[in-house]
Specification:
Elements: H1 4-14, H2 16-19, E1 24-26, E2 32-34, E3 44-45, H3 46-55, E4 62-65, H4 67-87, E5 94-99, H5 106-116, E6 122-125, H6 128-134, E7 144-147, H7 153-164, E8 168-173, H8 176-188, E9 198-202, H9 227-239, E10 246-250, H10 260-279, E11 286-288, H11 312-330, E12 336-339, H12 343-346, E13 350-360, H13 378-393, H14 399-418, H15 424-446, H16 453-461, E14 464-468, H17 472-475, H18 477-481, E15 488-490, E16 500-505, E17 514-515, E18 528-530, E19 539-542, H19 549-552, E20 563-570, E21 574-581, H20 586-591, H21 597-610, H22 615-629
Parallel strand pairs: 4-20, 5-6, 5-12, 6-7, 7-8, 8-9, 9-10, 10-11, 11-12, 14-16
Antiparallel strand pairs: 1-2, 2-3, 4-13, 13-14, 13-19, 15-19, 16-17, 16-18, 20-21
This protein binds pyridoxal-5'-phosphate (PLP).
Pyridoxal-5'-phosphate is lined by residues 99, 102, 124, 148, 252, 255-256, 290-293, 340-343, 547.
C-alpha cells in the first residue's frame, strides 16, 4: 500500500493528474482508477473492471466505457457557456450539438442522446447515413439536427421528411449549388414554410486554426462559401423570397485547436460577418461556432500539437465575450450560440485495455557461460573466444574500443555462418554474447557526459518491445496515421518500480503496428517505463481514445471491433458493469469482405470429402471449423 506522499509522487511522475481532467488517478494499491463524475467521487479500479468483465466471459482487448463521464463532459461544456452568458449579460442562448462522425458507435451515440436529453443537446451529421441513424432517436423538441457536409437531392429530401416528423433541421449549405436545390424544394412544398428545414450558410473564414487540422480552415479550405458566394447565396434567398428561411451562419476552423488565440480571431471574423448580414436585412438567429476544442492529451497545457493552452471555461468566455463585443459595436442583436464540439466531449469516456503477451528479445541461452567452443573451424572458434574475452574484460575506460572489436568479430562470425563454418548453436551463442557486450557498452555509455550518436542508435536496437494483444490500426488508428499521441499506462503495479524502457508492438503483421512515441510534459518520449511481466496478466490502458478512434478504426489483418463493457456507478456496490457487447467474431469480419458463412463451410466440406478422414472425423472437423468462425480474432489467454 502506498502512503499519501508516495502516491502523490507517483501521480506527479506519470502525469495522470495533468491529462486526466479529474477523471483518472491512482489508488493506494497502485491501480489506475476512474472517477466518471469528476474529482471527489468514488474511484472505479480498472483492473477490477477487467476481472468483472472476465467473469462475464469477456477477455482483453476490450473497451471500458463510462457513460457518466460523457454526461459530465456535456455538463461541463453547458455550464461553461451558462456561466459565460451570465457573466457577460448575453441576450442569446447556448445550444450544444454532438457531431456524429466523432464516434458513430451505436453504444456511444445512445449514451450521448440519453445524457444530453436534459440539456437539449442535438446532433450534427455530415452524410446521409449519419442522418438516417440520427433521425431514429427521439430528442427533446428544441434539440437541433444540423446537416453539414455536401448534399444531393436525396439528402435534402430526407431533411424535409425529418421536419414533417417534427425535427428542428438546419441544412447548412457547403457549396453554391446546394442552395438552389433546397430553395427549389421549398418552393414546391405545399406545406407551411415553418415545416421546411431552416437554412444555414457555412462561411469560409480567412482565419485559420492551429495544430494538425489547420488546413480545414482558411481561404484555401475545401469547405464553405467564399464572400462572393455568400453574397450570391443571399441574393438567391432574396430572389426566391425566402430571406427569412436563413437561420444560421456556421464556421469550423478544424479539430484540436491548440491555441485559444486562433479561436478568438475566427470568432471576431465570423461575428462580424454575422452582423453585416443582419444589417443587410436577413434574420439568422444562430451563430454556429463549430467544434475544435482541444484535448490536453499530454497534460502540458500548451499550444503543442497534443495539447491545448486553454480551459473549457476560457473557451466559452472568449466565445461569448468576442461575439457580444462585435454585436455591440455593430448594434445588432446577439445571436444564439451553437457549438459542435466532439473531441472534448467524447475523448475521455473510454479506455482501451489490453494484455501484454511477451517481452521480445528477452530469451536467454541458459548455459551460455558453460558453452564449450569446439568450432568446426579454427577461425570461427577464435572469433568466439574473442567475443567472450571482450565481454569479460570490458571496462568503463575501454568500452568504446572493445565494443568496436566486438562489432567486427560479430560480423565475421555472421559471414562464416553463411559459408557453413559455424553451427546453429555457435551462432546462437555468438548472438547472445554480442548482445551482452552491447548492453554492457550501453550501460557504460550512460555514465558518459554525452552519449554519442553510435550508442544512441544502439540503445534503440536494444529497447524492450512489449507485445500487446491488440491492433493499433483498430484501436488507436490516429497514432498510426497522423502520429497522434495518447496517454498509455500500465493499469496496476504503480506501487512497484518499473524495470524496462520499452516500445509497444501490436499483434498485426505490419511493422507500422508499433508505438514509439509517448506523451511527456516537456516533449514526447521514445520509450515508456514498464514493469517486468510476472505470473499475473499485465494490462496496459490507452486513454482518451473516445473521439474519432472508433470511427476511423480499420480492420487491418481482419482484427475487428473489440469487446466492450459499460460501467456505471451504483449506490449499493460502488459500481456495476451495466452492459457487455461482444467484439466482432471472425465470421462477421469475413462477411464484411463478402465471404458468406455457408460458402466458407461449403469450401471446408468439399476439401474434407476429398481427404482421408473418416465420415465421423469429417463431421467433427467441420463442427470445429464452424466454431472457429465464431471466435474472437485476438489472442486468447
Ligand atoms: C463541421 C464540423 N463540426 C464539428 C466538428 C468536430 O470537431 P471537434 O471534434 O474537434 O470538436 C468537425 C470535425 O472536424 C467538423 O468538421
Amino acid at each position: 500500500m502506498l502512503n499519501t506522499r508516495q502516491l502523490l509522487e507517483i501521480i506527479e511522475k506519470v502525469g495522470i493528474a495533468d491529462w486526466g481532467a479529474g477523471y483518472f488517478s491512482i489508488n493506494e494499491k497502485g491501480d489506475i482508477i476512474c472517477t466518471p463524475k469528476g474529482n471527489h467521487t468514488v474511484g472505479i479500479s480498472l483492473p477490477d473492471v477487467i476481472e468483472k468483465a472476465k467473469q462475464e466471459g469477456l477477455s482483453t482487448p476490450m473497451i471500458i466505457r463510462f457513460p457518466e463521464l460523457i454526461k459530465n463532459q456535456l455538463e461541463r461544456m453547458h455550464s461553461a457557456f451558462s456561466n459565460a452568458l451570465q457573466e457577460f449579460n448575453y441576450s442569446g442562448n447556448y445550444h450544444g450539438v454532438f457531431p456524429f462522425k466523432v464516434n458513430q458507435r451505436r453504444e456511444f451515440i445512445d449514451s450521448i442522446v440519453e445524457c444530453g436529453k436534459d440539456l437539449g443537446w442535438g446532433l450534427e451529421v455530415g452524410s446521409k447515413t449519419e442522418f438516417m441513424a440520427a433521425l431514429s432517436y427521439t430528442m427533446r423538441e428544441d434539440a437541433l439536427l444540423i446537416c453539414n457536409g455536401f448534399k444531393d437531392k436525396e439528402f435534402i429530401e430526407m431533411a424535409f421528411l425529418a421536419c414533417h416528423m417534427g425535427r428542428k433541421v438546419h441544412l447548412v449549405v457547403e457549396g453554391p449549388d446546394e442552395l438552389e436545390m433546397i430553395l427549389d424544394k421549398i418552393k414546391t412544398e405545399k406545406r407551411d414554410r415553418s415545416k421546411c428545414p431552416s437554412i444555414g450558410l457555412r462561411v469560409k473564414l480567412y482565419s485559420k486554426g492551429s495544430g494538425k487540422w489547420q488546413d480545414s480552415s482558411g481561404s484555401n479550405s475545401k469547405f464553405g462559401l467564399t464572400t462572393i458566394e455568400v453574397m450570391n447565396a443571399l441574393a438567391l434567398l432574396d430572389a426566391f423570397d425566402l430571406k427569412t428561411q436563413l437561420s444560421m451562419l456556421h464556421f469550423h476552423i478544424g479539430s484540436q485547436i491548440t491555441a485559444i488565440k486562433r479561436f478568438k480571431e475566427a470568432l471576431k471574423e465570423a461575428a462580424r460577418v454575422y452582423a453585416k448580414i443582419i444589417k443587410m436585412g436577413y434574420t439568422p438567429s444562430y451563430l454556429n461556432i463549430g467544434g475544435g476544442v482541444g484535448v490536453d492529451y499530454d497534460g502540458s497545457q500548451t499550444s503543442s500539437e497534443s495539447s491545448a493552452n486553454y480551459s473549457l471555461q476560457e473557451f466559452a468566455n472568449d466565445a461569448v465575450y468576442v461575439i457580444s463585443e462585435v454585436c455591440k459595436n455593430e448594434a445588432v442583436t446577439e445571436p444564439n450560440i451553437v457549438s459542435e464540439s466532439g473531441r472534448v466531449i467524447a475523448a475521455y469516456h473510454s479506455v482501451v485495455v489490453t494484455d501484454i503477451r511477451e517481452v521480445q528479445g528477452e530469451e536467454k541461452l541458459a548455459n551460455i557461460k558453460d558453452f564449450e567452443i569446439s568450432s568446426q573451424s579454427k577461425e570461427s572458434g577464435q572469433h568466439l573466444k574473442e567475443l567472450f574475452y571482450v565481454l569479460k574484460n570490458m571496462t568503463p575506460k575501454n568500452f568504446v574500443e572493445f565494443y568496436h572489436d566486438a562489432v567486427e568479430h560479430h560480423e565475421d562470425l555472421y559471414t562464416l555462418f553463411n559459408l557453413g563454418y559455424l553451427s546453429l548453436e555457435e551462432r546462437a551463442v555468438s548472438e547472445e554474447v554480442y548482445k551482452e557486450i552491447c548492453l554492457k557498452a550501453l550501460h557504460y555509455s550512460y555514465q558518459e557526459k554525452y552519449q554519442s550518436e553510435e550508442f544512441a542508435a544502439l540503445k534503440k536496437i536494444y529497447e524492450s518491445k512489449y507485445l500487446a494483444n491488440f491492433s493499433i490500426f483498430q484501436s488507436i488508428p490516429d497514432s498510426w496515421s497522423i502520429g497522434q499521441l495518447f496517454p498509455v499506462l500500465p493499469l496496476s503495479r504503480h506501487d512497484e518500480r518499473t524495470s524496462h524502457q520499452a516500445t509497444i508492438v501490436d499483434i498485426t503483421c505490419d511493422s507500422d503496428g508499433c508505438l514509439k512515441n509517448f506523451i511527456d510534459k516537456k516533449s514526447s518520449k521514445t520509450v515508456i517505463d514498464l514493469h517486468s511481466p510476472n505470473d499475473k496478466p499485465y494490462y496496459l490502458g490507452f486513454f482518451l481514445v473516445g473521439a474519432y478512434q472508433e470511427s476511423l478504426a480499420n480492420e487491418h489483418n481482419l482484427f475487428g471491433a473489440i469487446h466492450e463493457v459499460e460501467v456505471h456507478s451504483d449506490k449499493k456496490d460502488g459500481w456495476v458493469v451495466s452492459k457487455v457487447t461482444e467484439g466482432d467474431p471472425i465470421k462477421e469480419l469475413l462477411t464484411c469482405r463478402n465471404y458468406e458463412e455457408h460458402e466458407l463451410l461449403d469450401g471446408y466440406r468439399q476439401q474434407l470429402e476429398k481427404s482421408s478422414l473418416s465420415d465421423l472425423e469429417q463431421k467433427t472437423t467441420l463442427i470445429q471449423l464452424e466454431k472457429y468462425l465464431s471466435c474472437y480474432p485476438y489472442l486468447k489467454e
